[in-house]
Write a structure and sequence with these properties.
This protein is about 35% helix and about 30% strand. Strands 1, 2, 3, 4, 5 and 6 form a 6-stranded mixed β-sheet that branches. A 4-stranded antiparallel β-sheet has the order 8-9-7-10. Strand 8 and strand 9 form a beta hairpin. It has 10 helices and 10 strands. The chain has about 300 residues and is of the alpha+beta class. The protein has 2 domains: about 160 residues, Ribosomal Protein S5, domain 2; about 120 residues, Alpha-Beta Plaits, CATH 3.30.70. The structure holds 4-diphosphocytidyl-2-C-methyl-D-erythritol and adenosine-5'-triphosphate (ATP). The site of 4-diphosphocytidyl-2-C-methyl-D-erythritol has 19 residues, from strand 1, strand 2 and helix 5. Its EC number is 2.7.1.148. GO terms for molecular function: 4-(cytidine 5'-diphospho)-2-C-methyl-D-erythritol kinase activity; ATP binding. This is 4-diphosphocytidyl-2-C-methyl-D-erythritol kinase. InterPro entries: GHMP_kinase_C_dom, GHMP_kinase_C_sf, GHMP_kinase_N_dom, IspE, Ribosomal_Su5_D2-typ_SF, Ribsml_uS5_D2-typ_fold_subgr.
Length: about 300
């Protein structure tokens, strides 16, 4: 898209993710954890507007007043890292980024990572860099372990620290009811507090992969688990209560996403999802009824 008076522009949807499973295998020497998890893209999204400007540097604005608008914003960092990596000078031209935030922040939904992925994809196009998905993923990893997945989307097995990705088949889409309790959770603190030798319930990842491909929801529900719940549920017991509430409201399965605190319920039926969402909206401010998405490219 080109707008003569304002420079070329591009608007992208930056989709959130949920973790259909999350297993932590061991802690690495650098403090990061070796994971085995299944990621799922959902329709909830921020909008990321990009515009090339004759003025130098990166300028960032957002409707979310509490988010940083400088180097502290992961979208800002993504633009700077791509420019440096690809040899684009930000002294002779610049970029304006506007983030319309809809994804709850620090919620376990990878909102920041999704914005960063959108900036990388968008600037790759606007700057005509021609970088492949794999090249963008390599550039992105030091900025955040969820970004390589956000660049890819769809349903995927993520291993390593999150960067070893294998696309998976989700035979039937789901409606997803998201509820974010009004607490903030730091991903770093959750991983730091995790006691690997005290984990009793782990996901059955292989059974889950098979069940997703066969649309076998009974096996799926039994195979899903998130080991980070062992840290967050004792700290925020509401998360456990919300899981039980979603199951009582006819969810096929319910789990905490990522490091939390967002809890999601999967529904086969849109009406049941809507009705559960309406009931939960009476109790919680941040409730979203959305659906799973297939990989777009
Ligand atoms: C919880 C998940 O969202 C699940 O998808 C991710 O594992 C976290 O991904 P993220 O927020 O993009 O992670 P980063 O921004 O790279 O790291 C935040 C913090 O989480 C911890 N971290 C993250 C990923 C990983 N495999 N092991 C870790 O221990 C690190 O202490 C790090 O300081
Ligand atoms: N563009 C952005 N969107 C959201 N948060 C951002 C952004 N840039 C920086 N941040 C900061 O990053 C922190 C985590 O935000 P984010 O919403 O990505 O967490 P999250 O959903 O828990 O991520 P993950 O699931 O990857 O752990 C917040 O404290 C926020 O201030």
């Amino acid at each position: 898209m080109t707008n003569e008076s304002h420079g070329p522009t591009l608007t992208l949807q930056a989709h959130a993710k949920i973790n259909l499973s999350l297993d932590v295998l061991h802690k690495r020497r650098d403090g990061y954890h070796h994971l085995c998890m299944i990621m799922q893209e959902i329709s909830l999204h921020d909008e990321v507007h990009l515009r090339l400007t004759p003025e130098p540097g990166i300028r960032l604005t957002t409707n979310a007043g509490f988010l940083p608008v400088d180097q502290g914003n992961i979208a800002w960092k993504a633009a700077e890292r791509l420019a440096r990596g690809a040899g684009v000078s930000l002294e002779s031209q610049g970029v304006a980024i506007h983030i319309d935030k809809q994804i709850p922040v620090a919620a376990g939904l990878a909102g920041g990572s999704a914005d960063a992925a959108a900036v990388l994809k968008g600037l790759n196009a606007l700057w005509r860099l021609g970088l492949s998905l794999e090249e963008l993923q390599l550039i992105s990893l030091p900025l955040g372990a969820d970004i390589p997945y956000c660049l890819m989307g769809g349903t995927a097995l993520a291993e390593g620290i999150g960067e070893r990705l294998t696309p998976l088949t989700l035979a039937k889409p789901f409606w997803v009811v998201l509820v974010k309790p009004p607490v903030s959770v730091s991903t770093r603190e959750v991983y730091e507090a995790l006691k690997l030798d005290e984990i009793e319930e782990r996901p059955d990842t292989l059974a889950l992969i098979e069940a997703l491909a066969q649309a076998d929801s009974l096996t799926m529900a039994g195979a899903m688990a998130n080991v980070l719940e062992t840290v967050t549920i004792p700290q925020v017991p509401e998360i456990g209560e919300l899981k039980r509430r979603l199951l009582a409201l006819n969810a096929t399965a319910s789990l905490m996403s990522g490091s939390g605190p967002t809890v999601f319920g999967l529904f086969k039926d849109q009406e049941k999802a809507r009705s559960a969402g309406e009931k939960l909206k009476r109790l919680y401010r941040e409730v979203h009824v959305v659906h799973t998405l297939r990989r777009s490219q």
